[in-house]
Predict the structure of choloylglycine hydrolase.
Amino acid sequence: MCTAATYQTKDFYFGRTLDYEFSYGDQIAITPRNYPFSFRHAGEMNTHYAIIGMAHVAGNYPLYYDAINEKGVGMAGLNFVGNAAYADVTSDRDNIAQFEFIPWILSQCATLSEVRTLLERMALVATPFNEQFPLAQLHWIISDKTGSITVESMADGLHIYENPVGVLTNNPPFPQQMFQLNNFMHLSPKQPVNTFSDDLALTAYSRGMGALGLPGDLSSASRFVRVAFTKMNAFSGDSEKESVSQFFHILGSVDQQRGCCEVADGKYEITLYTSCCNVTKGIYYYTTYENHQISAVDMHRENLDGGALICYPVIQGEQINYQN
Ligand SMILES: C[C@H](CCC(=O)NCCS(=O)(=O)O)[C@H]1CC[C@H]2[C@@H]3[C@H](O)C[C@@H]4C[C@H](O)CC[C@]4(C)[C@H]3C[C@H](O)[C@]12C
């Protein structure tokens, strides 16, 4: 399972948890402006906006999981297994392979409004990267500081939904996730008052009772409600450190601990990494399951006019700050 979220303070933040039982081998990859993209059905693109994100790099190609561009747009792909379906190539569309979707959008859109325009003539097609990497069944959240959309390519076509809550998890399809929030409209960060019955002396005997009923399990539907509640009520100072810290706390609400979600005998899904991008400033912060210290890569500390990928390894292993 995975969860993505946005957060606005002075700057705009975008990130995700990547939950799985194994890692594909990830790196923080910066695609500079003159890296040549060769799209399978949509031609060559030799100059474009710079991109930073988490990727598996295969044959010098950045297979992004989540990324932002230098203009302030963020995008993440999350599992949508059993529901994702990709189209056949047709002559009247921009045919973009599923693995090209993040580069296609982030290389040329400076705003969410430009994303919407580009999506009008795009089809997500079933062209795999290679035999080793078959199609990933995903859906996507795309955001800028003005809002978010969800993109779901299904058997009945490409769906683009406004995403007013700015979060995404996995199944079921997005309209169902949004609808189920109706069931939780009574939740509140404030203490409840007794509306149950005037004839009973019911009291709020503990802090936090306003959110009694918030689902605590790791299912995708429950994580959607939990992260939506946390994000919509999250409050922090607007400095960089306060914002980044608060963002990791928001996604911490859906953290997956090894042992709680068994996917096969003795195999467990865990939060492999959590990212938090300052989209405004082009900084990719992350923590991993084994390393709670926040690490960061700042795209603007690199020469973004280059033509070769710039990659940083994911730093693993707890960094403990001994005080004596
Ligand atoms: C496994 C990842 C999604 C994690 C997730 O959503 N887990 C939820 C599990 S569940 O549904 O709730 O059960 C996805 C996110 C991005 C994906 C990768 C990116 O799409 C980039 C390439 C795309 C290639 O087609 C396949 C390899 C790949 C490198 C993908 C491997 C894998 O499918 C990734 C890493």
Observations:
- The chain has one domain: 2-313.
